[in-house]
Amino acid sequence: MTLGDTGLERQVLGMFADQSVRLVATLAALPAEAGAMAHTLKGSARGIGAFRVADCAEALESAIREGESPAKCLIELKAAVAEARAAIEAMLHRS
């Protein structure tokens, strides 16, 4: 998606890492717009190749839509985001 622009790639990955953590913290409170927020996170995660985050966000979105308890989905999403952030940090700090 960045057409080989390493600087842009680093910027996009850094933005995702920062925003995903804030979004997960907000989602933990289950605001009225939580389903839409999970949907947005799903798309962003797919866009950068963070497929586990995307799958967890999709599961959360579905749980909210179906009126199911989102607790397990939130735990899994938080873990997936932490894993993605660690991978992004490693990529950004490579020599």
Q: Could you describe the 3D structure shown?
A:
The protein has 95 residues and is mostly helical. The protein contains four helices and no strands. The chain has one domain: HPT domain (Four Helix Bundle (Hemerythrin (Met), subunit A)), CATH 1.20.120.
* Annotated CATH topology: Four Helix Bundle (Hemerythrin (Met), subunit A)
Number of strands: 0
Give the rounded overall mean pLDDT. Answer: 93
Runs with pLDDT <50, length 5+? none
Task: Give the DSSP E fraction (strand runs of 2 or more residues).
Answer: under 5%
How do the helices and strands follow one another from N- to C-terminus?
A: HHHH
Task: Tally the structural domains.
Answer: 1
User: Number of helix segments?
Assistant: 4
Q: Which structural class do the helices and strands define?
A: mainly alpha
Shape descriptor reads elongated
Largest sheet composition: none
> What is the C-level CATH assignment?
Mainly Alpha
Alpha-carbon distance between the two ends = 22 Å
| CA-atom Rg in angstroms | 14 Å
* Assigned CATH superfamily: HPT domain
Range of helix content: over 70%
List descriptors:
single chain, 95 residues, mainly alpha, Four Helix Bundle (Hemerythrin (Met), subunit A), 80% helix, 0% strand, elongated
Quick overview of this protein structure:
With 95 residues, the chain is an all-alpha fold. Helix content is 80%, strand content 0%.
Chain-wise SSE layout:
Blueprint: H1 6-28, H2 34-48, H3 51-66, H4 71-92
